[in-house]
Design goal:
Largest sheet: 5 strands, mixed
Radius of gyration: 30 Å
CATH topology of one domain: Outer membrane lipoprotein wza fold like
Distance between the termini: 17 Å
Structural class: alpha+beta
CATH architecture of one domain: Roll
Number of strands: 11
Shape: elongated
Order of helices and strands: HEEEEEHEEEHEEEHH
CATH superfamily of one domain: Outer membrane lipoprotein wza domain like
Strand order of the largest sheet: 8-7-11-9-10
Strand content: 15-25%
């Protein structure tokens, strides 16, 4: 009677290794999907037909800084009636100069005079200035923009901080691009937008893994918005005060894995 030492069969060992490989690959695929933009609920063939959210212009309010220029066919006529003339204030961050909207909602332009712009959109303020300027200039050309359109971006982004937005109609993706994109550790399904509305802070969760983000009424940003990119759970654990415990646990798993690997090869070689 021949005694056979118990152990794993070679086929069983290869089967276990194959299962381990599949587990690693499936984990990698899952992680890669978490960092892909607009992948949720948006088949490849339908990505070019996503409906855009309607855009509504923001209203001018006190302490806004307006960059205003008035031009005519004769530049000498409007020399000095610009955002760099007297009464203007230099804004920080390379945003240029502009006329400040006072606490009563008025701006004061040289020659043109004092105008109330609070509660108007930039387009409405442009037409109001044009109407007033026509009393002094022939066919004036008016340009206006918000010089202190600033948004703060925090969290898992490449360059967190305050950024100045050069255009009125800017979306969440535009601002993320301005700070160098999200890091791999950002939770793309939970971007928090903090917006002040009627004296209250409003917190809105936005998911940029879904193409439906373009339909959100909060896709287009507003001056003063704060955008926070939350970290994924693994990132949060990595920066906890108990990081040493996690490190020791990782070492333990590695030691157990190495021991099991050596033991498996020894048993197979003895067969």
């Amino acid at each position: 009677m021949t005694y056979t030492q118990p152990g794993f069969k070679k086929g069983s060992v290869w089967f276990v290794c194959l299962l381990g490989l599949l587990a690693v690959l499936s984990t990698g695929c899952s992680n890669s999907k978490q960092v892909v933009y607009f992948s949720k609920d948006a088949p490849e063939k339908d990505r070019s037909t996503v409906e855009l959210a309607s855009y509504s212009s923001f209203k001018i309010k006190p302490d806004d800084i307006l960059d205003i220029t008035i031009q005519t066919l004769d530049p000498q006529n409007t020399q000095g009636v610009t955002a760099t003339s007297g009464g203007s204030e230099k804004t920080e961050g390379g945003s240029g100069s502009g006329f400040i909207v006072d606490k009563n909602g008025y701006i004061e332009l040289p020659v043109v005079g004092r105008l109330k712009v609070e509660g108007l959109t930039l387009s409405e303020a442009k037409e109001k200035i044009r109407t007033q300027a026509q009393q002094y200039f022939k066919d004036p050309l008016i340009n206006i923009r918000l010089a202190n359109f600033r948004v703060t971006v925090l969290g898992e982004v490449s360059r967190p901080g305050a950024v100045y937005v050069p255009v009125e109609k800017a979306g969440l993706i535009d601002v993320i691009g301005m700070v160098g994109d999200l890091t791999p550790f950002a939770n793309r399904s939970k971007i928090v937008l903090i917006r002040e509305e009627q004296g209250n802070k409003k917190f809105i969760n936005l998911d940029i893994t879904s193409a439906d983000i373009f339909k959100s009424p909060y896709y287009y940003i507003r001056p003063g918005d704060v955008i926070y990119a939350e970290p994924i759970k693994a990132r949060s654990r990595a920066v906890t005060l108990d990081a040493s415990r996690d490190r020791y646990v990782a070492y333990l798993f590695q030691a157990v894995s190495l021991t099991l690997t050596i033991w498996t090869f020894i048993r197979v070689s003895q067969q």
